[in-house]
Write a structure and sequence with these properties.
mainly alpha; F1FO ATP Synthase; 4 helices
């Protein structure tokens, strides 16, 4: 089994797992469609943000390791810039999680 197929299988599993709250909700049918849509959008946003963050972190770490191996004297500077970059990448994932929580916690029908 290749790495790509393992990744896609794991991604599909987590996507299905993220939609399980849809089965547990008991909401007024008139408000259900907007609430279900907000759950789907929230799960999609956090999934895309985590995937992009993971790929960004992996690329930055590999580039930093390559840079340090080419020029060991610049290791301290590269390491500092790497940590700063990883912090910025991780804030994207945290903001996406925050947006998802806000979307899921707001009562959409209360203001209509």
């Amino acid at each position: 089994m290749s790495t790509k197929s393992k990744f896609l299988g794991l991604l599909a599993f987590f996507l299905v797992l993220s939609f399980t709250p849809l089965a547990a909700q008991t909401i007024d049918p008139a408000r259900a469609s907007l609430f279900k849509l907000s759950i789907i959008v929230g799960a999609g946003v956090i999934t895309l943000a985590v995937i992009a963050g993971a790929f960004g972190q992996a690329k930055s770490i590999s580039s930093a390791c390559e840079g340090i191996s080419r020029n060991p004297a610049a290791g301290q500077h590269i390491r500092g810039i790497l940590i700063f970059g990883l912090v910025l990448i991780e804030t994207l994932v945290i903001y996406a999680l925050l947006i998802t929580i806000i979307i899921l916690m707001v009562k959409w029908g209360a203001y209509s």
